[in-house]
Amino acid sequence: MIETAPPPLDYDPFDYRQHDDPYPVYRRLRDEAPVFHNSRYDFYALSRYDDCQRAVRDFKTFTSAQGTSLEELKAQVELLINTDPPVHSRLRHLTAGLFTPARVAPLEAAVRDMARALIAPHLAAGRIDIIDDFAARLPMAIICRLLGFRREDEDLLRGWTDTVVHRDEGVFAMPDEGMQATLKLYDYFNAELADRARGASREDIIGLLMAAQAEGRIDHQGVLGYIYILSIAGNETTTKLIGNMCYQLHRHPDQFAEVLADRSLISGLVEETMRFDGPTQMMARTTTRDVALHDRVIPAGKKVALIFTSGNRDERHYEHAERFDVHRNPRDHLGFGGGLHACLGAALARLEARVAMEELLSTLGYFAVEEEGLARMHSPNVRGFTHLLVRFVAR
Amino acid sequence: MPSVTFLPVDAPPIIAELLPDMTLMEVALINDVPGIIGMCGGICSCATCHVYVAADWADRLPAMTQEERAMVDALDRAGPTSRLGCQVRLEPGLDGLTVRVALPE
Ligand code: HEM
Ligand code: FES
Hints:
The structure holds two protein chains of two kinds.
Chain A: H1 17-20, H2 23-32, E1 35-38, E2 43-46, H3 49-57, E3 62-63, H4 87-95, H5 101-104, H6 108-119, E4 127-129, H7 130-135, H8 138-147, H9 154-165, H10 176-198, H11 205-214, H12 220-233, H13 236-251, H14 253-261, H15 266-277, E5 282-287, E6 291-293, E7 296-298, E8 303-307, H16 308-311, H17 346-364, E9 368-369, E10 375-376, E11 385-387, E12 389-391
Chain B: E1 3-7, E2 14-17, H1 24-30, E3 50-53, H2 55-58, H3 66-73, E4 82-84, E5 98-101
Parallel strand pairs in B: 1-5
Antiparallel strand pairs in B: 1-2, 3-4, 3-5
């Protein structure tokens, strides 16, 4: 028998080839190099569940204040996601009460109406691009509604936010287009704020942030940054989650049948897809001191990738971790992160994902993915499809 | 220094500085209190910040919202003074507050 040595272990989130199926590399990281050093870009990576969870809790050692991407933070405005307490707590408390499950629940009817309206035009054709025709539109529509933006601006805003998260292959910084799109977003928000300042105040998130600004609890730049992060964070990821759920059903026909027969399993489908194939692969932190872990030392001041989707498949934490199972209902997965920076929009994302699936399943029934038409987005942090065409029985 | 005391399961008490406007969960994380995870970051949806408030303090805390009440009622380990740490905002008047950390669900 000829044994071929495995290729050298490399974790490079900027390498397009690793995006198709990163999970074998993650498994090797967990087993062979739980503290991995990428020498090309000089960052470290943690891939086990316990290590990721400890790191998100221990913000004094693993700070967010130097940015949460591996790229160097281009000092812009203060963003919720890139702060530590006490600044972080002050910012987060401004809106946290609006994002609890009970506070987002009243949006259900609006999500459902939008989902139906998006699916309806495709029923006669028996074919729909789950991403382009549906999942890419739904979350942006809801975010626009939450932020009080005009419906006709949705496509424009989505174009910009997509550009912001896109990375060119092998490029280790936000490309110029990304910077320009960021500036366009800020211009848009500024115009919106100026508009509101002239007119009557409204009782929504932006209204609340403007009121906080009037009381001196946040400044103008802070308000802009807040709107920016809410527009970016809630858009791409929810889109990709819906796509990944459809893909996993397609890959697991037995469970597809089960979920179709029993719609109460859809929440389990959402949770298990978040664990097994969650859109946010990784978020970064920076060490504030030397950290000794698994016989290695991460020096102070180094970027550390926390690979959440690897932690989610850690067999040290989950039984049969590499098996997809809608009955598992894992509520402790790292798909939304954890600790103080845990996803602010998680309850909203869960609601949107559940209602989207309910509507897709009840209108399309079984569907089959056209595998040759699958296309992926490329970003070091977010993983998912840009096109996912499915066929179903036309009606 | 105004303080709050956490009594973790099987670990020594932790006396933490009371930081006004922070939540009990946040102060627990700042002080690395074992057993308080704060998985959802305080959006009232994970209950990994569950604590039992000392009986003589229970009435002196800000009241529970319906939502916190519903979450707590659904917990197997709920007790008469159960609270979700992320829903308890601290203020200087709470100097001396003592809470026991609950076991995970
Ligand atoms: C399936 C969809 C989503 C996924 C997978 C996701 C994932 C995440 C993750 C992993 C984090 C933690 C970042 C870190 O630890 O550095 C996060 C933070 C955040 N998410 Fe989401 N998210 C989703 C949907 C949303 C939605 C719909 C919103 C809308 C409001 C949102 C808003 C935010 C914000 C504002 C933060 C920063 C919170 C903070 O730093 O305190 N997310 N998200
Ligand atoms: S931290 Fe999740 S409910 Fe308190």
